[in-house]
């Protein structure tokens, strides 16, 4: 099996993100692999363990955005490539989908592409199905486990809002993986050393053989959300019953029930 | 004349999701400024009843595709149909709910129609004939204004961010039947069985949520069966705690939520997780018990209208967001609170 995993570098989820002078800032918070993408890497590695083959991890970002790729290499992916070109600054999600599709095409003869569910910075969760659409492949999103896999078909369980669903699809296909898949492995000491030394090739648009795709989405303004003014009232009383009665009255008075 | 605003009605097993009706409400609120009315898209098999419901919620027209290939939602035949209809009729705007299906269809239609997609929008306004939308990013730590310069402007709306219109059983409109575009043989995906969620009331649609965190296992007075391992004893104690959370949720008709710590420790399934890597929710009332209020948890529930926190630790960060707090043991407080609310709600 030839497998590609797509990962994104994002600010740590614990970061305080604010807008300062019109620019988004996360202070000195570390940049990490998008947490959802660790599940995608885990799924790719386990698939190769079962089926044989190789995993290539791809990320589109600025020239120095190799943190997510290094983490995936340290977890055990075989190869990495950074897709980066100054002309891609400000790309919208359809443009990113076209660029990632071109990168997958460049890898060639790919059977399965794994994605995370969603990027925790932009929170769009649309790339997996968009990339599939650009490639003309089926998209199977929110996969919680792979039941069967052969050279030309995959059967999976999906975790959708309403419950669990079993679906089968032809290959090649794009899959996005949810947390139910199982805990991602920690990088091994050897893996971290190997990743630190790895030379990660950079693919620019010339290398992909495409022009920068047009973007139609603009972000005219970023705003710090209005501060939520809450005065916290600690409810006290002589006994739990007394506290519960008072709290129940206060909740009823808010007319939310 | 065709309407400029289309609303995709998301349904599962013949039941429309409430967020679909919110979409009609949002569509009607901007239809005036863009001209024309609202057209609802209803796809499935045996779903004419949903088309009628769409009229009740205010749709002026319904494009109804009723076909065996559309019986189970699949992104390929659904996208192909949306793309064909939109190419022929050129709507200005297509609204979807931000559900799994909505995200897929919006994204894939954007590819087919050479447009873009604005995801998880919480507010819409029209400026010079173009929509300026607001969306939370970085798990709601920031808000972004976003715009799409291509047509159709494809938008997914966050659940509960737009009011659901009142249904009026006497309303009707124009029903137009359309054909599916893909034959079964051209569709790469097959859907097999399906099991309903363990979660009960859906978190994202819930008006009231009662959540439990790691604290639900912390009751030293509970004696777990001795033949269990230490880990199993903790889960056993957590189940007693979650039973109290469930009782309160039952009285309030609420969904049950959880922190990631409770999910990771195996107290409750992942579908119940609230937060940055769980579900983002915005109920009218959120009751957090035994939850400290880590930034990733707050990201998932900070926009709740009324937040109530029960925690042993007076310094827990959750109290900063809470309107009402109780510094105390959830095992002491939840049972009488459940009784007190049951009495007031006359059950
Ligand atoms: C990448 C990433 C993503 C994450 N995503 C999420 C997410 O989506 N959602 C999420 O929730 N977290 C998320 N987290 C985890 C988050 O950082 C916290 O670890 C987690 O929210 C803590 O859960 P908790 O409040 O239940 O547990 P704790 O922090 O352990 O808090 C337990 C609380 O219970 C109180 N308590 C104990 N016993 C009792 C009692 N008997 N009665 C009353 N109170 C009691 C304690 O005082 C304490 O405040 C994420 C973390 C990372 C790194
Ligand atoms: N710049 C990127 N490079 C590679 N993969 C990405 C990139 N952005 C997003 N992805 C992948 O697409 C998934 C969904 O992202 P999004 O649709 O942006 O929320 C992520 O979990 C990643 O697997």
- Largest interface summary: A-B, 83 and 91 residues
Mean pLDDT of chain B: 95
CATH topology group of the largest domain in chain B: Rossmann fold
Structural class of chain B, by secondary structure, is alpha/beta
The largest pleated sheet of chain B is described as:
7 strands, parallel
Number of helices of chain A: 7
Sum up the overall morphology of chain B in one term. elongated
Q: Tell me what portion of residues of chain A adopts beta-strand conformation.
A: 25-35%
Strands ordered across the widest β-sheet of chain A: 11-10-9-12-8-1-6-7-13
CATH superfamily of the largest domain in chain B: HUPs
Please state the structural category of chain A: alpha/beta
**What is the succession of H and E elements of chain B?**
EEEHEHEHEHEEEEEEEEHEHEHEHEH
Any low-confidence stretches of chain A, pLDDT <50, length ≥5?
none
Q: What would CATH call the class of chain A? A: Alpha Beta
Choose one word for the global shape of chain A: globular
N-C termini distance of chain A: 54 Å
* CATH level 3 topology of chain A: Rossmann fold
Strand runs of chain B, count? 18
Tell me the count of domains of chain A. 1
């Amino acid at each position: 099996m030839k497998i590609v995993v797509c990962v994104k570098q994002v600010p740590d989820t614990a970061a305080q993100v604010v807008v300062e002078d019109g620019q988004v800032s996360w202070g000195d918070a570390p940049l990490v692999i998008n947490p959802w993408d660790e599940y995608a890497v885990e799924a790719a590695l386990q698939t190769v363990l079962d089926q044989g083959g190789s995993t290539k991890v791809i990320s589109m970002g600025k020239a120095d955005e190799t943190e997510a790729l290094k983490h995936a290499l340290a977890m055990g992916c075989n190869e990495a490539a950074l897709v980066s070109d100054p002309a891609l600054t400000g790309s919208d999600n359809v443009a990113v989908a076209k660029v990632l599709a071109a990168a997958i095409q460049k890898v060639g003869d790919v059977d399965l592409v794994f994605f995370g569910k969603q990027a925790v910075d932009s929170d769009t969760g649309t790339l997996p199905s968009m990339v599939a659409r650009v490639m003309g492949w089926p998209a199977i999103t929110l996969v919680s486990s792979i039941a069967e896999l052969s050279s030309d078909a995959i059967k999976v369980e999906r975790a959708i809002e309403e419950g669990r669903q079993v679906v089968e699809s032809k290959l090649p296909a794009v899959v996005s993986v949810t947390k139910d898949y199982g805990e991602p492995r920690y990088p091994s000491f050897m893996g971290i050393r190997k990743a630190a030394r790895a030379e990660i090739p950079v693919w620019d648009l010339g290398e992909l053989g495409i022009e920068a795709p047009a973007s139609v989405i603009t972000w005219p303004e970023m705003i710090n959300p209005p501060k939520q003014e809450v005065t916290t009232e600690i409810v006290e009383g002589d006994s739990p019953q007394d506290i519960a009665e008072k709290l129940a009255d206060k909740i009823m008075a808010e007319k939310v029930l | 004349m065709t309407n400029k605003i289309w609303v995709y009605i998301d349904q599962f097993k013949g039941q429309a999701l409430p967020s679909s009706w919110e979409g009609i409400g949002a569509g009607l609120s901007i239809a005036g400024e863009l001209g024309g009315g609202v057209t609802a898209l209803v796809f499935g098999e045996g779903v004419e009843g949903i088309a009628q419901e769409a009229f009740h919620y205010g749709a002026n027209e319904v494009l109804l595709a009723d076909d065996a290939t559309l019986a189970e939602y699949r992104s390929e035949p659904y996208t192909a149909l949306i793309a064909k209809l939109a190419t022929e009729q050129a709507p200005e705007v297509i609204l979807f709910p931000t559900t799994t299906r909505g995200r897929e269809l919006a994204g894939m239609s954007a590819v087919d129609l050479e447009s873009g997609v604005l995801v998880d929008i919480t507010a819409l306004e029209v400026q010079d004939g173009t929509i300026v939308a607001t969306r939370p990013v970085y798990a709601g730590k920031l808000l972004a204004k976003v715009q799409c310069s291509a047509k159709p402007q494809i938008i997914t709306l966050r659940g509960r961010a737009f009011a659901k219109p009142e249904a009026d059983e006497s309303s009707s409109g124009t029903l137009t039947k359309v054909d599916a575009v893909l034959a079964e043989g051209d569709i790469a995906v097959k859907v097999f069985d399906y099991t309903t969620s363990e979660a009960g009331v859906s978190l994202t649609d819930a008006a009231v949520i009662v959540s439990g965190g790691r604290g639900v296992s912390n009751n030293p007075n509970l004696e777990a069966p001795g033949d269990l391992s230490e880990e199993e004893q903790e889960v056993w104690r957590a189940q007693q705690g979650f039973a109290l959370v469930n009782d309160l949720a039952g009285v309030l008709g609420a969904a049950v939520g959880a922190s990631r710590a409770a999910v990771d420790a195996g107290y409750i399934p992942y579908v119940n997780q609230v937060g940055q890597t769980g579900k983002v929710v915005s109920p009218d009332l959120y009751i957090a018990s035994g939850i400290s209020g880590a930034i990733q948890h707050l990201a998932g529930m900070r926009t709740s209208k009324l937040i109530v926190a029960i925690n042993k630790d007076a310094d827990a960060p959750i109290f900063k967001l809470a309107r009402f707090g109780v510094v105390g043991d959830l095992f002491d407080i939840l049972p009488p609170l459940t009784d007190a609310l049951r009495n007031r709600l006359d059950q």
